[in-house]
Write a structure and sequence with these properties.
The structure holds 2 protein chains of 2 kinds.
Chain A: H1 2-9, H2 13-30, H3 58-66, H4 70-73, H5 78-95, H6 98-103, H7 105-119, H8 129-135, H9 138-154, H10 169-173, H11 175-179, H12 197-219, H13 229-237, E1 243-247, H14 257-261, H15 268-271, E2 276-277, H16 288-292, E3 299-303, E4 306-310, H17 313-326
Antiparallel strand pairs in A: 1-2, 1-3, 3-4
Helix pairs in contact in A: 3-5, 3-9, 7-12, 9-13
Chain B: H1 2-27, H2 38-49, E1 61-64, H3 71-76, E2 80-83, H4 89-96, H5 105-115, E3 123-129, H6 133-144, E4 149-152, H7 161-182, H8 188-213, H9 219-228, H10 234-254, E5 266-270, H11 279-286, E6 291-295, H12 300-303, H13 314-326, H14 338-350, E7 355-361, H15 365-380, E8 385-390, H16 397-417
Parallel strand pairs in B: 1-2, 1-3, 3-4, 5-6, 5-7, 7-8
The chains are: A mainly alpha, B alpha/beta.
């Protein structure tokens, strides 16, 4: 048991994450080859437009369900919405936001782009602290819109129902739809649909976002995640999860290592000195902060209140030494 | 004529300094000193008794004030940092003629050190972070003596965004200045190596601190180790430190030194312990209270923290260094300074401290002013505090050691009653 503890303390979390991400990427993009089908309510961007996927993103289903008239939602048919949400919740509760950091194929793709960037020696750009705070709100707006717009289809909000072409508004602009099928050699989503003006606008927007996705991911780490409505939905539910990131402020020396290594530059983790849960809405539980913290037990990842990975003095120096050998 | 007088003065200061060093080292009993401590005694003797030895560094020396100068940058630029905060009584006296009598003895000693020009043959420039008023004016004074001084501008606070940006810019200016001095560029590789060396030193220092909490190393020895770290080559220091730790760990394994475990455990805080002025730890130790941990800018505050970065590019490494030297800083010159109390309480809990000794040099106002807040926070933790105001030199031995004896006895009595 002590051996296992020691091994976990010294774990090279980045390497572990790298391979886990590859595993999930392969699963979500090529899982269909092995006739796998996990669930249609996954809390990640396992895009439904990918032919050989093994599961799909909950947001797609959610948008579909929202197109029903409100009266129907409160009938027995509402049970479908409820079970859908509960399935999503069960998946989510298991891994919390680690779904973003370890499983999301779109996130993985961004991390690979980051690897290319740092590999060719281009330095990252960072958000200004005020700009970051302002941009954070966009994902909540998107989450509200992706529920409200489909609602306007089955219900007469604007006098008459909205066109069915707005059925999955977020998917239309999500880079997951355009980019991920490419890995199945399917380029059909990379186009602007001129059949109707609504489709044209939505697909054109989608193409623009796709362009932004690539440029953004090259310049900043996890650029798209800042706007991700899935991340917003997850954060709203994160208190329910059995996986928690906990900080003991009393042990913190405010060395700021955690902020230094954070891909999205969350300052709260260094500045919050209260004891307790410190998961933030942009956090993806990549655990780099825990690995970079040199104070024993200051940061901990707890599963059902059992520390799975914790910050340790020995682990920190062990990892830094490895880094030195790496250059 | 003036120069002749100056050189005579320098000669006399040099002699006095050698005597003072010998006197202080002589007060440390060698009976239970670990063998590996020999390295540190030797280095200190060499440094204080043959100051011209500084000129024999293989690299240009760069003098630093305080604990906020990013030493890794100096090393990456191919120079060797020498922290000039030292508090010899003879320098204090010499500096008394240059600065008001009410200024603190560290500042006076540093002015006196500069006036006697002992170390400055080997130090090509001085970096002074703008910490307290005393240090700032001391830097001004040194500059008038014809020594190149770079002021590493420090924000008065560390918590705001403005402070972080200001500090970052200040460190970048310092980098440019450094490269100008040494004519050597700080590269990704050289900085990475420099950071790594300091990391290894930090790792060993933390190992020593763990042993210190077990009470197996005398406080005086501990402070001699940290003081040697002010000027020694970092790799040599790390090596000697790891030898010392290995020897002490062997002692722990044999069960030696453990019998002192139930003596009252002390934390020392306030103005720094700076060689040769190690009288307070010496007397605390002699009174029977091991110092198990400290919150001093000459020891833990200087060596405890280590930077981390995700990508090994120059920009991110410099950014990590900026944070490492400002953010965990708990110097009393910062306002607000909530981290100092938080850190002290955390140390007290971790090291199971029984009492706190708070020393300030007369004239060190910021530390004296923080005393009440600290005392209140410690009272909430039910920890007694002894406040000492002192100077360089052993003149107040009678009075101070009596107070320390009484304090430790009372802590001991309290422990027995529990």
């Amino acid at each position: 048991m002590r051996k296992l503890r020691e091994m976990l303390d010294k774990a090279d979390i980045n390497q572990f994450r790298f391979w886990t991400q590859i595993f999930f990427f392969a699963l979500f993009i090529y899982g269909g080859w092995w006739a796998l089908n996990w669930s249609e309510r996954l809390p990640v961007f396992a895009c439904a437009f990918v032919q050989d996927r093994c599961g799909s993103c909950y947001l797609l289903g959610l948008q579909h369900q929202m197109t029903a008239p409100v009266s129907r939602m409160f009938s027995l048919a509402g049970l479908g919405i409820l079970t859908g949400f509960l399935t999503f919740l069960i998946w989510f509760v298991l891994l919390n936001k680690a779904w973003c950091g370890y499983a999301c194929p779109l996130g993985t793709l961004q991390d690979w782009i980051t690897k290319i960037r740092s590999g060719i020696g281009v330095r990252r750009s960072q958000y200004s602290e005020t700009g970051f705070k302002r941009l954070k709100r966009i994902k909540y707006a998107l989450l509200i819109l992706l529920i409200l717009i489909p609602l306007a289809i089955g219900n007469t909000i604007f006098g008459s129902g909205l066109s069915h072409e707005f059925e999955i508004p977020f998917c239309m602009i999500c880079p997951g739809r355009t980019v991920l099928p490419i890995f199945n050699a399917d380029f059909s989503q990379l186009m602007i649909d001129f059949s109707t003006s609504t489709k044209m606008i939505l697909t054109a927007l989608g193409m623009a976002v796709t362009g932004g996705f690539f440029v953004g991911a090259f310049v900043k780490k996890r650029f798209f995640c800042l706007f991700c409505p899935m991340s917003a939905l997850q954060y709203l539910l994160s208190r329910l999860s059995v996986l928690r990131l906990v900080k003991d402020g009393g042990k913190c020396t405010r060395c700021n290592n955690c902020v230094q290594v954070c891909d999205v530059g969350i300052r709260q983790i260094a500045e919050n000195m209260e004891k307790g849960d410190i998961l933030q809405d942009d956090c993806m539980l990549c655990l780099k902060c825990v690995a970079a913290c040199p104070e024993n037990d200051c940061l901990q990842l707890k599963f059902l209140n059992i520390p799975v990975f914790r910050s340790t003095d020995t682990g920190f120096f062990c990892r830094m030494e490895k880094k030195e050998r790496g250059i | 004529m003036a120069s002749e007088e100056q050189s005579r003065m320098a000669q006399s200061i040099r002699m006095h300094l050698a005597m003072e060093t010998e006197d202080v080292l002589g007060r440390i009993s060698m009976d239970e000193a670990p063998q590996a401590m020999g390295y540190f005694y030797r280095k200190l003797r060499q440094f204080f008794q043959q100051p011209e030895g500084l000129g024999h560094f293989d690299k240009p020396g760069i003098g630093t004030f305080c604990a906020q100068v990013p030493l890794e940058l100096i090393e990456a630029a191919g120079a060797r940092p020498v922290r000039l905060c030292m508090a010899a009584g003879i320098w204090d006296q010499a500096g008394g003629e240059l600065l008001p009598a009410k200024s603190c003895s560290v500042v006076k000693a540093m002015a006196g050190m500069a006036a006697s020009q002992l170390f400055f043959s080997g130090v090509c420039a001085v970096v002074a972070p703008t910490t307290c008023d005393g240090k700032k004016k001391c830097a001004d004074l040194i500059e008038t003596m014809g020594i190149a001084v770079h002021r590493l501008e420090m924000p008065p606070s560390k918590l705001s965004r403005a402070a972080r940006n200001y500090w970052r810019e200040s460190v970048e200016t310092f980098m440019a200045q450094l490269q100008g001095w040494t004519k050597q560029k700080i590269t990704r590789k050289s900085l990475h190596t420099a950071i790594h060396r300091r990391l290894m030193a930090t790792e060993q220092f933390r190992r020593l601190c763990r042993l210190q909490t077990k009470g197996v190393l005398r406080a005086v020895d501990y402070f001699l180790v940290t003081q040697t770290g002010f000027f020694d080559d970092v790799e040599a220091w790390t090596l000697a430190l790891s030898d010392l730790c290995a020897e002490l760990e062997a002692r722990v394994a044999e069960g030696r030194g453990i019998e002192k475990q139930n003596r009252p455990r002390m934390l020392l805080t306030g103005s720094p312990v700076l060689f040769p002025n190690i009288k307070v730890p010496l007397w605390i130790e002699q009174a029977g209270g091991p110092i198990v941990t400290d919150e001093l800018c000459s020891a833990t505050d200087m060596f405890h923290d280590a930077p981390a970065y995700d990508e090994t590019c120059l920009h991110d490494m410099v950014s990590a260094l900026c944070d490492r030297y400002l953010s965990p800083c708990v110097c009393a010159c910062l306002s607000p300074n909530p981290d100092r109390i938080r850190k002290m309480i955390s140390l007290c809990r971790q090291a199971r401290v029984d009492g706190v000794v708070y020393q300030t040099f007369s004239g060190c106002l910021s530390y004296a002013m923080e005393r009440n807040a600290v005392a209140k926070a410690l009272a909430d933790e039910k920890l007694p505090l002894l406040y000492i105001e002192t100077d360089a030199g052993f003149e107040d031995q009678g009075q101070l050691s009596t107070r320390i004896d009484a304090f430790i006895e009372s802590v001991q009595a309290k422990r027995r009653n529990f």
